[in-house]
Predict the 3D structure of the following.
Amino acid sequence: MPLPFRLEVSDGTARSGVLSTARGDIETPAFMPVATRGVVKGILPGALKRLGASMILMNLYHLLERPGLETAERLGGIHAMFGWDGPILTDSGGYQVWSLSESVSISDEAVKFRSPYDGSERTLTPESAVESQSRLGADVAMALDDCPDPKAGADRIREAADRTIRWAKHCLEAARRPDCALFGIVQGGTDLALRREQASALSAMAFDGFGIGGLSLGEEKSSTWAALEALDATLPREKPRYLMGVGEPTDLLEGVERGVDLFDCVLPARVGRNGGFFTPDGRRQIRNAAFRDDASPLFGGCDCPACAPESGSADLGLPARKTPWSRAALHHFFRVGEMLGPILLSMHNIRFLLRLAASAREAVRAARFAAFKAEFTARYRAGE
Amino acid sequence: MPLPFRLEVSDGTARSGVLSTARGDIETPAFMPVATRGVVKGILPGALKRLGASMILMNLYHLLERPGLETAERLGGIHAMFGWDGPILTDSGGYQVWSLSESVSISDEAVKFRSPYDGSERTLTPESAVESQSRLGADVAMALDDCPDPKAGADRIREAADRTIRWAKHCLEAARRPDCALFGIVQGGTDLALRREQASALSAMAFDGFGIGGLSLGEEKSSTWAALEALDATLPREKPRYLMGVGEPTDLLEGVERGVDLFDCVLPARVGRNGGFFTPDGRRQIRNAAFRDDASPLFGGCDCPACAPESGSADLGLPARKTPWSRAALHHFFRVGEMLGPILLSMHNIRFLLRLAASAREAVRAARFAAFKAEFTARYRAGE
């Protein structure tokens, strides 16, 4: 059963549609908060849903280590264990094998590596990666990809892309639940011809959608956008496209402009934990001494639990509070190491990205995406 | 205007009443969660209120350092700055001067010490301690006490107790808001005659209630209880008594039995942050491997946000969830360093103490406190 995706509106190459899963619909473009080890750090699943999240991302690589496949299954799967009843997309671990593991050896059959948790040997095959995601309970699983170091040179980039295609076939043959969708992953670095070739090969396979991997890893932004344009012209229009690991606010809009439907990124939570907060006028740092006595909210007009806790009571399921958290209070929390600081800034930043994706969606549907993007980007950059 | 306290029921020497403040009533016996630097670590003020907290405690000593008196005043006081609109009791800093400061020099006029934050010199006088608490917005301020090292010997214990009495007079003369109540603090170590003498002297002064300081600092429990019995017989029955820093579950009941009305302790949050959780059968450690695959809640019958999130949705203002957080999920959070673990266990433990105090209150009012205490204590100790 293919994953139903209904492309409803186009505005130039920007798109808007609805991706349906057994656990709910995702209105696209959409941003997926990252719950690496089962939850978004510090944020209760209910609060996350009421921030506006529809689908969230978890990482097979980390979940296989802890809590482990058997434990997660005994606890009823990742939805039950982690209290999230909406759709979950799981990443296959290809990226983590490259970025986190030691002693990686890779063949057409499997990738072997040492666990960064305890140093013992681990093996992932295309089949086991998909089967494990399905057993964890994923609504959307990702094919295992060979994710090359972007600086490794053209030969390695091609080798990895070709292996990703060979693995893709095995992924499709793996045992998986009928309600677990499967996305292929396009590799190919910034070589546009290779990207097109990969996209064509994957498009001929029975995938429910396509991840775009191997981008936003330090390459020039112009190369990133050129690769997205090449893929937009090659990937089937009727299937969803997911730009993996992208979530800087202006980058998200660049992706939407080039036909991307889904995004994920740890950025909003990571920035928040370190005291950064997004505003329409760029990113700010709450530890800045200028905020010590500042009674205003992070920014006026924000409807997150930190900036608009009263509306948050009804909409976000969060405690009522008559006034916003002031920048001064949040500055204080960071200054004394109180974890409500990171928590409130993470919620603010995640809400910022979710709302940005929702605004992009509205703009596409009103056929004014180009103006929306230009206006947001100019203001955001002017403030940085 | 004295702080209204209505003693309603006695059951032996255990008591139950209502302490009224401009920001709400506190039904006693009551446990006060500790919001040292403005918030209980990791817990939003609304969530805390819906856990059942009525009055919370903040520390003058820490708040004077950060955010500082002027900043807190500019932000509208500690209620506005930290989003808690219920009553706040502030501690005067006497205990923190002893336990946290370097280079302490103490005279009848003032205590001087070095700030543990930046090493610079600080001065507290009985007058400034009370005035600062009032300016911060405290509903109940504590007199400045000279808190001696309990091992310092009889001479130092007596010196500190006598100075605390002399300071008490100055505290009562300090400028303070009419709606800011003031409690004296009884020192005197485990010397029962000295405790009685101190309590008599303070009872003759216009305090709204009495803190019992200098206990639960490593002395034999039998000495603690003997001191409480001496004080119960000496302090005026019509004013509230607050046993400072006590919050171990069975100790709280020992205090209630001996006429104590108020308690505070960092224990539930601190234990929770370190993976400990209270159950009627004693304290447990969630990191224990036995909990790795345990699908049950921390304990059945608990109505905290971790154990009963669904009822929590209505009662506690927390996100709806169909099933309790399993011990396995909480074990996982601690194993991978996810802060939801400490947050959920802190909420569980604080709810446990708040509910224990509420149950003690019910038992007193039903004239069955002795049986309640015996039953709770036997079961709790049998499980340890």
About this structure: Residues 311-320 of chain B have pLDDT under 50 and may be disordered. The CA atoms of residues 64 and 132 of chain B lie 8 Å apart. The longest helix of chain B spans residues 340-365. Chain B touches chain A through 49 residues (CB under 8 Å).
